[in-house]
């Protein structure tokens, strides 16, 4: 008979009460953040003093603990992060969820037994990304929310590591880890755990927003009626979002999904779903990208639980009803020390008490047995009990209680062990692998922009076509290669379907390109055969350890994150080398759900897909890539970032990158020529209407 597939239910815990609510309502595992380095810094989280209690509370009840360690880190933070990793390891946590590859590198080297899960912030959305994560040292990947069910199944079937997916809760409009909207709007970075959620504010397509215009506020995900499909796809764990939500919501959501996993009937699931939606609802019963295009926008959250429902949920975790079955065997033999053995899930503990005294009269064995089985204040319940006791054996009640407490404490220590932490820890050495050539590199969308960039003196062009199935522009640009210029292909941040992979593989195998730029960890597999392999700015190279890791993986050039300040870029450049983006509208969001298509129907856009306008009247251009599974739409910043005149203040860079989207060929030529002049030391004033980005404005 085939073994029944099982799945782990992973619930959020933004506070002590939420953690208890999750555990008491049936979570198999919980995830929460500590005092630092987690992507929900505004949740209650757990202090260093509270964490030991939280870990032991969960383990005592058979619940795994996954700690969110999932922000990008600056170089100055890495030593503290390693110390924090040692602290978590010593607590015996089951895993840490990590985004920063620099952090993954130092944890894997210093704490090889610490289990690493690849955060959804890494944007892993294909088999290649999962395989790369496995090679790096991750044992599980938390897939991007945009991955459809058929691709989830494909990854589960072939990745050879655990796959976790979201099943319920808030959906980021942008691909996680690739959203810089909050960062550019107000220096509060989603990659640093301080997202201000500007996507939930009023914004409209092509005009200033009205009262009901929320074009970037996407509906929530609800897979409560589709748990079986996730199990059948091979997912090892389903995750419920909600570390910022109230404990009663955590209770309701956990309770509902526990019932669905355990095979509750449709009527029961429908009733539990009603409780969840009364507790919190944004957009109704939608399945996100699993079976469609993400849901709907213009969604405003509703929370209408009422006192009766709140009390009902509170009652589900008011008492400690999560008990683990234990077998107990007692030996009370006159003249020998009292013994009590306990066993739970294959773990054994034994306590030895005082010497048993001879009684003046026969004792009531049933009373002794009853006293030893009083486990009410513990996480245990007696599943089997046996006792060897002399008729004349005597032990005072206080001694019996002490014997039971010692045995329980010993068993709890076995259930939630605190491993010894390695003494010798250090940051891995980094080496300078850059070339410092100051190559002027232009990223363009069109053939006309490419020709303008080459003619103005660009050393190389990164072509990011509207359609990767069309090689017309690449063919037309071949004469520039014969003149010694390089033509490279820039890949999009999000790449999901097998068909789109094949289109890009065909284009890269054409011999038309000298190299390519990856913007997602999984894309290394697509470009590894090329002479020049670049890790683009979307790959979040935030520190020297991350840059070194990318070099180790096989990249030849690494473009630093656009969320770094001048001093932060400088510190990396002197240690490892790297490239810097000096001009261009930042891609603030990566949309798999097109707001234009939702409102006006597909417009068959060819690169310029319209605009979004916020309450302040700021205009954000939309730039699309037409992929096999539908468009990827990038929200560009309202103003271009321009530090061309400032980048000479940095150490020598491998390349100065200029990114062009809406610019005319004439504008491209002028801006490239200015960069060429700046490289030679000539004065190059900033362009009108531009911003300095994060040059001197650090993200929180």
Account of the 3D structure:
It is a single chain. With 700 residues, the chain is of the alpha/beta class. It folds into four domains: 236 residues, TIM Barrel (Alpha-Beta Barrel); 98 residues, no CATH class; 92 residues, no CATH class; 186 residues, TIM Barrel. Helix content is 31%, strand content 21%. The strands form five sheets. Strands 22-21-20-19-18-17-29-23-28 form a nine-stranded mixed beta sheet. Strands 1-2-3-4-5-6-7-10 form an eight-stranded parallel barrel, surrounded by six helices. Strand 6, helix 6 and strand 7 form a beta-alpha-beta unit. Helix 9 runs antiparallel to helix 10. The mean pLDDT is 95.
Salient structural properties:
700 residues; alpha/beta; TIM Barrel; 4 domains; 9-stranded mixed sheet; 8-stranded parallel beta barrel; 29 strands; 21% strand; elongated
User: In which order are the strands of the major sheet placed?
Assistant: 22-21-20-19-18-17-29-23-28
Mean pLDDT: 95
Helical amount: 25-40%
Number of helices: 22
> What is the CATH third-level topology name of the largest domain?
TIM Barrel
Unreliable segments (pLDDT under 50, ≥5 consecutive)? none
- Coarse shape: elongated
Under CATH, the homologous superfamily of the largest domain reads Aldolase class I
- Strand-residue proportion: 15-25%
CATH architecture assignment of the largest domain: Alpha-Beta Barrel
| Main sheet characteristics | 9 strands, mixed
CATH top level class name of the largest domain: Alpha Beta
Distance between the termini: 55 Å
Q: What structural class is derived from the secondary structure elements?
A: alpha/beta
């Amino acid at each position: 008979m085939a073994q029944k597939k099982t799945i782990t239910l992973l619930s959020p815990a933004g506070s002590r009460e939420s953690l208890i609510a999750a555990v008491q309502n049936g979570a198999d595992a919980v995830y929460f953040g500590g005092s630092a380095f987690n992507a929900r810094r505004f949740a209650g989280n757990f202090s260093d003093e509270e964490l030991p209690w939280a870990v032991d509370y969960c383990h005592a009840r058979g619940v795994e603990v996954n700690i969110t360690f999932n922000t990008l880190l600056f170089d100055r933070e890495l030593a503290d992060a390693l110390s924090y990793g040692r602290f978590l390891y010593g607590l015996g946590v089951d895993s840490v969820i990590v985004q920063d590859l620099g952090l993954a590198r130092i944890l894997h080297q210093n704490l090889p037994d610490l289990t690493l899960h690849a955060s959804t912030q890494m944007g892993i959305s294909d088999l290649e990304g999962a395989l790369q994560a496995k090679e790096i040292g991750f044992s599980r990947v938390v897939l991007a929310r945009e991955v459809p069910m058929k691709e989830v199944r494909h990854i589960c079937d072939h990745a050879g590591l655990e796959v976790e997916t979201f099943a319920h809760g808030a959906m980021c409009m942008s691909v996680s880890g690739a959203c810089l909207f909050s960062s550019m709007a107000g220096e509060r970075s989603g990659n640093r755990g301080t997202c201000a959620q500007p996507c939930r504010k009023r914004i409209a397509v092509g005009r200033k927003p009205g009262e009901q215009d929320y074009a970037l506020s996407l509906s929530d995900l609800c897979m409560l009626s589709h748990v079986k499909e996730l199990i059948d796809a091979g997912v090892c764990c389903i995750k419920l979002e909600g570390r910022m939500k109230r404990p009663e919501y955590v209770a309701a959501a956990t309770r509902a999904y526990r019932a669905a996993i355990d095979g509750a009937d449709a009527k029961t699931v429908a009733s539990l779903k009603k409780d969840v939606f009364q507790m919190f609802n944004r957009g109704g019963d939608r399945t996100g990208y699993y079976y469609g295009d993400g849901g709907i926008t213009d969604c405003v959250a509703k929370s209408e639980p009422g006192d009766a429902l709140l009390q009902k949920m509170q009652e589900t975790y008011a008492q400690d009803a999560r008990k683990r079955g234990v077998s107990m065997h007692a030996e009370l033999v006159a003249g020998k020390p009292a013994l009590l053995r306990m066993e739970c899930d294959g773990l054994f503990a034994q306590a030895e008490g005082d010497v048993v005294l001879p009684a003046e009269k026969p004792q009531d064995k049933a009373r002794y047995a009853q006293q030893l089985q009083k486990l009410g204040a513990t996480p245990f319940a007696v599943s089997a009990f046996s006792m060897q006791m002399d008729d004349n054996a005597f032990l005072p009640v206080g001694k019996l209680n002490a014997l039971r407490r010692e045995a329980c404490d010993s068993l709890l220590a076995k259930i939630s062990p605190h491993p010894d932490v390695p003494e010798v820890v250090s940051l891995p050495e980094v080496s300078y692998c850059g070339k410092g050539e100051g190559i002027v590199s232009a990223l363009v969308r069109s053939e006309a922009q490419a020709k303008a960039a080459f003619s103005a003196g660009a050393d190389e062009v990164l072509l990011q076509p509207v359609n990767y199935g069309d090689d017309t522009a690449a063919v037309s640009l071949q004469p520039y290669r014969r003149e010694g210029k390089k033509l490279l292909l820039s890949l999009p941040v999000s790449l999901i379907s097998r068909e789109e992979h094949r289109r890009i593989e065909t284009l890269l195998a054409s011999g038309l390109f000298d190299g390519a730029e990856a913007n997602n960890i999984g894309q290394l597999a697509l470009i590894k055969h090329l002479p020049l392999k670049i890790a683009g700015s979307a790959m979040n190279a935030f520190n020297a350890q991350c840059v070194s890791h990318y070099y180790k993986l096989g990249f030849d050039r690494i473009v630093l994150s656009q969320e770094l300040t001048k001093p932060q870029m400088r510190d990396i450049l002197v240690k490892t080398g790297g490239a810097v983006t000096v001009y261009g509208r930042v891609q603030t969001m990566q949309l798999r759900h097109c707001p234009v298509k939702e409102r006006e129907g597909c417009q068959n856009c060819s690169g310029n897909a319209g605009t979004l306008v916020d309450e302040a009247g700021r205009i954000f251009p939309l730039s699309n890539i037409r992929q096999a599974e539908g468009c990827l739409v990038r929200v560009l910043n309202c103003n271009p970032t321009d530090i061309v005149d400032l980048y000479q203040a940095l150490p020598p860079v491998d390349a100065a990158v200029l990114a062009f989207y809406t610019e005319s060929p004439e504008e491209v030529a002028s801006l490239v020529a200015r960069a060429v002049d700046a490289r030679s030391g000539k004065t190059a004033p900033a362009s009108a209407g531009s911003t300095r980005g994060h040059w001197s404005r650090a993200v929180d």
